[in-house]
Each structure stands twice: as structure tokens, then as C-alpha cells.
Automatic annotation (TrEMBL):
Annotated ranges, domain PRELI/MSF1: 2-168
GO cellular component: mitochondrial intermembrane space
InterPro entries, per the entry: PRELI/MSF1_dom (IPR006797), Slowmo/Ups (IPR037365)
Organism this protein belongs to: Pieris macdunnoughi
Lineage: Eukaryota, Metazoa, Ecdysozoa, Arthropoda, Hexapoda
Stretches of the chain forming a coiled coil according to its record: none
Pfam families: PRELI (PF04707)
Protein name, as recorded: PRELI/MSF1 domain-containing protein
Domain of life: Eukaryota
Length: 202
């Protein structure tokens, strides 16, 4: 029976920014394992954008896993649906080859959360059909997927931050400077008061 993994990520960027940045995720400092990405097909139907891409990624495995597969890279199929009217981006990914050893199917749904945030619900199913080792391989697959998901989020945030630098509103800057001036003035007044108090005592 496949192992299931789920987590939720909040990106501090609008849905439009996330949907645009999704296509520019690579390269980033966390994506050295992504060797290539190629668009297989792309078309618009009923106002939605459908895309299928082929990704090639490195396939590092622990020593014990080399007895089952020793491929240096693995092909990943990525399918996505973008609905700009409903503001929903859904992606599906699955590995090609060695699926009997370990298959990973991932679904991510991006939806807006207010005007400036986007919530991503990530679900994954990890399975193995290797007799006698399937449970251990599934556990390993879920653990590695959990770690990779964290890297993916960090890498995507890096891309979004570079595409859409966060600008502090002018009124916030003014307010902050005003507070700093007031705090500095208050500190000066306290210092003067302490000096006068010391002089009076002497």
C-alpha cells in the first residue's frame, strides 16, 4: 500500500506572481539536481492553460539502494493546469522508469490567500513493488520527498524574491524613521537628566 505525505506552504506573494514565477523556478541555488526541462506540449482549452513538460533530474541513491537501481538520472513528467479566472494552478508529477522499484506521484494545488499570499497544498504518494523491501523503500521515499519538498520551497522563494523584490511602503519607512528620531531624542533627554542629577548631588 502506497505511503502518503501532505504538507501546506504559504508563499508571501500573490497568486499571479506565483503562477508567473512557476515557469521560472529553474535554475536556483536549490536546483542543482535538475539537469534539464523541456516542454512537451502546451495548449489553451476553455480558458485554461494545459502544459506537459519533461524534466531530467539526478538520482542519488544510498548504497543499499544500488542493488535495485543505479541510474544516474531519472525522467519526470510534469503536467499542469492554470485557470487564471478561478486563480488555481494545479500540477501533477510522476517519475518514468523504475516505477516498480519506487514510484512517486505528486499533486500540488496553488490558491490565493488574500491579496498578497498564496497557499500551496502538496500531496504525494510513494509506492514500491519490490518483494520483501517495499515497506523500507516506501519509508525511504517519503523521507527523501519530505526533505526535497523543503528544498523546492526554498528554491521557489528565492526565485520569487528575485522576480518580485519586496518594497517597503513609504509611509512605513517614514513612520519607522519618526519612531527612531523620537527614541533617540528620548534617550538624549534621559542622558541629560542623569547628568544634571549627578551634578546636583555633588
Amino acid at each position: 500500500m502506497a505511503r502518503y505525505f501532505e504538507n501546506t506552504t504559504v508563499f508571501n506573494f500573490s497568486w499571479d506572481q506565483v503562477a508567473l514565477g512557476y515557469w521560472r523556478r529553474y535554475p536556483n541555488p536549490q536546483s542543482s539536481h535538475v539537469l534539464s526541462e523541456d516542454t512537451w506540449s502546451r495548449y489553451v482549452k476553455d480558458g485554461c492553460l494545459y502544459t506537459k513538460r519533461l524534466l531530467t533530474k539526478t538520482n542519488r541513491v544510498p548504497k543499499w539502494g544500488e542493488r535495485f537501481f543505479n541510474a544516474k538520472s531519472v525522467k519526470i513528467i510534469e503536467e499542469s493546469i492554470v485557470d487564471p479566472e478561478k486563480k488555481v494552478l494545479i500540477t501533477y508529477t510522476r517519475n518514468l522508469g523504475y516505477t516498480k522499484v519506487m514510484s512517486v506521484v505528486e499533486r500540488v494545488e496553488y490558491r490565493p490567500s488574500g491579496a498578497s499570499q498564496t497557499v500551496a497544498l502538496r500531496s504525494a504518494w510513494v509506492d514500491s513493488q519490490v518483494f520483501g523491501f517495499s515497506r523500507a523503500i516506501r519509508a525511504f521515499g517519503v523521507d527523501r520527498f519530505r526533505k526535497n519538498a523543503s528544498h523546492m520551497v526554498n528554491g521557489f522563494n528565492y526565485v520569487l524574491s528575485n522576480m518580485f523584490p519586496r518594497q517597503v511602503p513609504q509611509h512605513t519607512v517614514t513612520h519607522t524613521l519618526k519612531e527612531m528620531r523620537e527614541a533617540a531624542a528620548a534617550a538624549t533627554d534621559r542622558a541629560k537628566a542623569n547628568v544634571l542629577s549627578s551634578v546636583n548631588r555633588t
